What we know:
By secondary structure, the protein is mainly beta. It has no helices and five strands. It has a five-stranded antiparallel β-sheet, with no helix packed on it. It is globular. It starts with 10 loop residues before the first strand and ends in a 28-residue tail after the last strand. The model has no long low-confidence stretch (mean pLDDT about 85).
Amino acid sequence: MAGTRVELGDEVQDLISGVKGIATGRTTWITGCDHIQIQPQGSAENGGRLEAIATDEPMVKILKKAKVVPLTAQDPKERGGPAAPAKRAYSI
């Protein structure tokens, strides 16, 4: 599947390091290079979160499309939607 655009929520693998995880971010650089942030699943030995890595998109292999549905793809009502601003924040 190399060469296919990585979408957020895809299960992917970095071809250089072998790290597998979920694509959680995309950064587009002024040079036209796209980086994909990969969040490994599971926990570190100390129970904490495994550290995410970022790599060039051409170095990422898609293992499974849309393994996780990003919150941005859900109806805003399902994730709380916009909230009224605090009155004190705007002196009203």
